[in-house]
Amino acid sequence: MAISDRLVRYLGSTKNLVGSAGGLAGLGLHFTGLAGPYWPLIVVGLYGAGALAAPPQRVTLVIDDTVARTGRLRADLDGLLARAGEHRLPAEARERVDVIASVLRDVLLRSDVLSDSPDLMYEVSRAVRTDLPTSLETYLNLPRWYAVRRTGHGTAGEELIAQLDLITASVMRTAEAVYDADHRRMRDHTRYLRDREPDDDLGSPPRAG
C-alpha cells in the first residue's frame, strides 16, 4: 500500500509532469525523423533530464484543519436551527435567527479566508456555539406564561430580540471582514486596469480595424 501511495503521489508530482513533457518532446523528434535509431534512449534521456530539472515538491507538514472545522460548524449550526425550530419562537426572533444563519453559512464557505485569520474563525465559532445557542436556550427554557409577562425590564421576548440584534451586528462585522479582502482585490484590479490605459484613451470608443 505504501509503495502504491508513493507511486500515485509521484505520478501527480511536478517532476513527473516536467519529465513527461521532455519525453513527449523526444517522441516529437522521433516522429519528425530527427532522433534516428536511438530515439528510445533520447526519450528516456529527455524524461530524466526534465524530472531532474524540475523543482522538488514542497514539504507540507502543517495540517490545515480549517475545512474540517468549518464543516463541523455548519453541522452544529444546522443542528441548532433544527432543534430550535421544534419550539416556539416569536416571529421577529425567528426572522433574525434566519438572517444570522444565512450570514454564517455564507462566511463558513470561505474557509480560504478563515484559515488565514484565527480571529475571524473564533468569532464565527463563538456565534455558532456560544452566542446564538445561549440566547435561544435561555429563552426557550422559560415557561410560556413568563416569557410573555411584562416586567420593569420588558418581556423575555423583547430581551431575546435585543440579544439577536447584537449577534446580528457581530456576525455582520465578521462577514464584512471576510469579504473585505475580495473588495480590496477588486479595487486593486480597477486601479490596474486604469493605470495600464493612456489617459487620452479613457472613455473613447475602440478604434476600428
Task: Outline the structure in words.
The chain starts with a helix and ends in a 14-residue tail after the last helix. The chain has 209 residues and is mainly alpha-helical. The chain has helices at 2-11, 14-31, 39-53, 66-85, 91-108, 111-114, 118-140, 144-147, 156-195. The longest helix has 40 residues, at 156-195. It is elongated, with a radius of gyration of 30 Å. It has nine helices and no strands. Helix 4 packs antiparallel against helix 5 (91-108). The chain has two domains: 2-53, no CATH class; 66-195, no CATH class.
Question: How do the helices and strands line up, and which of them pair or pack?
Answer:
Layout: H1 2-11, H2 14-31, H3 39-53, H4 66-85, H5 91-108, H6 111-114, H7 118-140, H8 144-147, H9 156-195
Please tag this protein with its features.
9 helices, 2 domains, mainly alpha, single chain, 209 residues
Distance between the termini: 62 Å
Task: Describe the main β-sheet briefly.
Answer: none
Q: What's the mean pLDDT score?
A: 81
% residues in beta strands: under 5%
Structural class: mainly alpha
Number of domains: 2
**DSSP helix fraction:** over 70%
Q: Which regions are unreliable across 5 or more consecutive residues at pLDDT < 50?
A: none
Taken from the alpha-carbon principal axes, the silhouette is: elongated
Series of secondary-structure elements, N-terminal to C-terminal: HHHHHHHHH
Give Rg in angstroms: 30 Å
Total strands: the figure is 0
- Count of runs of 4 or more consecutive helical residues: 9
